[in-house]
């Protein structure tokens, strides 16, 4: 595998590299112990956007790998005084951090900070409506566990197609691995860039063919004023919510997924979240192993991990 000292995006990785990452995550899930560190590796977690699943699973992954973890309280940091992201990262680097795990509202935040001289290893925990590599990894792990393969599977993504970094991140990698994609949701949120990955379909048509139905949260915090004022939860539920009636149209082997947080009874009916077809909480569990795999590659690339377990 190409030894990249950062983990920013999976789209530039080959099929073989992605499958190697999935295999490592599977091995961790099966109980494989990580290789030992050859130094005290210090990681700073900087979440400029709210998070439950991503931040806690990164924390657990860091713990399992033996890293020294520092969670930066951004609400009480100099960010509130106008400090730039680059200066924040240069500060934690100067203090002695080796890795920074960052979630930020700006698309492609990592390109700017690299240009501005940030040198410590960076892990992208989500950039605006850009990409979310560790979410894509845990989605892949969940699908592999369920079906044992990727090629030939049909995935339908339903919901906010315009503002979701998950759809951007997953679509590129899923297609690369041979999965067929369709998209459903409010037509005004259809993103023409997604035509490269699959076609827009009506929910009631696409759900009959899908192996995986990926429900996407309405990204209320990313809607502009016009979008927010025109959004109707009642209309959304009627036309785009995955409910019991729509679930009955699915293949017997098909599953539900959702990157979270779930707005129950909006994107998906509450009973389905906890039902037999749901893999939503399995995704959350898999987040630890997926993030362990991504961090392992960063540790290896920076020569902070022993060659043998």
Write the layout of secondary structure elements.
Blueprint lengths: L14 H15 L12 E6 L5 H12 L3 E4 L13 H11 L3 E6 L4 H7 L5 E7 L5 H15 L6 E5 L6 H12 L3 E5 L13 E3 L2 H4 L5 E4 L9 H6 L2 H8 L3 H4 L7 E3 L12 H4 L6 H22 L8
Parallel strand pairs: 1-2, 1-3, 3-4, 5-6, 5-8, 6-7, 8-9
Helix pairs in contact: 1-5, 1-12, 2-12, 5-6, 5-12
How does the helix and strand content classify structurally? alpha/beta
**Tell me, what is the CATH class of the largest domain?**
Alpha Beta
What is the general shape? globular
Distance between the termini: 18 Å
Q: How large is the share of residues in beta strands? A: 5-15%
What is the name of the CATH architecture of the largest domain?
3-Layer(aba) Sandwich
Q: Please tally the β strands and state the result.
A: 9
The biggest beta sheet reads: 5 strands, parallel
> Overall mean pLDDT score?
93
Structural Rg:
19 Å
Please give the share of residues in helix: 25-40%
CATH fold topology of the largest domain: Rossmann fold
Output the strand order for the largest sheet.
Answer: 7-6-5-8-9
* SSE topology string: HEHEHEHEHEHEEHEHHHEHH
Question: What oligomeric arrangement do these chains adopt?
Answer: single chain
The DSSP helix count reads: 12
CATH superfamily of the largest domain: Aspartate/ornithine carbamoyltransferase
EC number: 2.1.3.2
InterPro entries: Asp/Orn_carbamoyltranf_P-bd (IPR006132), Asp/Orn_carbamoylTrfase (IPR006130), Asp/Orn_carbamoylTrfase_sf (IPR036901), Asp_carbamoyltransf (IPR002082), Asp_carbamoyltransf_Asp/Orn-bd (IPR006131)
Function: Catalyzes the condensation of carbamoyl phosphate and aspartate to form carbamoyl aspartate and inorganic phosphate, the committed step in the de novo pyrimidine nucleotide biosynthesis pathway.
Domain Aspartate/ornithine carbamoyltransferase Asp/Orn-binding: 151-296
């Amino acid at each position: 595998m190409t030894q990249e000292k950062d983990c920013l995006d999976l789209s530039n990785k080959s099929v073989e590299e992605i499958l190697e990452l999935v295999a490592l995550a599977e091995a961790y899930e099966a109980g494989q112990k990580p290789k030992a560190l050859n130094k005290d590796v210090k990681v700073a977690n900087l979440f400029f956007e709210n998070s439950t699943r991503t931040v806690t699973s990164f924390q657990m992954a860091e713990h399992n790998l033996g890293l020294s973890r520092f969670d930066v309280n951004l609400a009480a940091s100099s960010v509130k005084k106008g400090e730039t992201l680059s200066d924040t990262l240069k500060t934690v680097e100067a203090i002695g951090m080796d890795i920074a795990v960052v979630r930020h509202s700006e698309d492609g935040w990592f390109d700017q900070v690299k240009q501005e001289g940030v040198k410590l290893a960076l892990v992208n925990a989500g950039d605006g409506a850009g990409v979310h590599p560790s979410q894509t990894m845990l989605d892949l792990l969940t699908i592999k566990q369920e079906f044992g393969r990727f090629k030939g599977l049909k995935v339908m993504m339903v919901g906010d197609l315009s503002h979701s970094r998950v759809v951007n991140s997953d679509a590129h990698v899923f297609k690369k691995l041979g999965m067929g994609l369709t998209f459903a949701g409010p037509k005004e949120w259809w993103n023409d860039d997604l035509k490269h990955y699959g076609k827009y379909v009506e929910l009631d048509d696409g759900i009959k063919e899908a192996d995986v139905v990926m429900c996407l949260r309405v990204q209320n915090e990313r809607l502009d004023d016009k979008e927010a004022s025109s959004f109707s939860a009642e209309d959304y539920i009627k036309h785009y919510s995955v409910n019991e009636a729509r679930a009955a149209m699915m293949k017997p082997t098909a599953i539900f997924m959702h990157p979270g947080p779930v707005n129950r009874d909006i994107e998906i009916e509450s009973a389905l979240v906890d039902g037999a077809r749901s893999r939503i909480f399995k995704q959350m569990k898999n987040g630890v192993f997926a993030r362990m795999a991504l961090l392992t590659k960063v540790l290896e690339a920076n020569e902070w991990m022993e060659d043998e377990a």
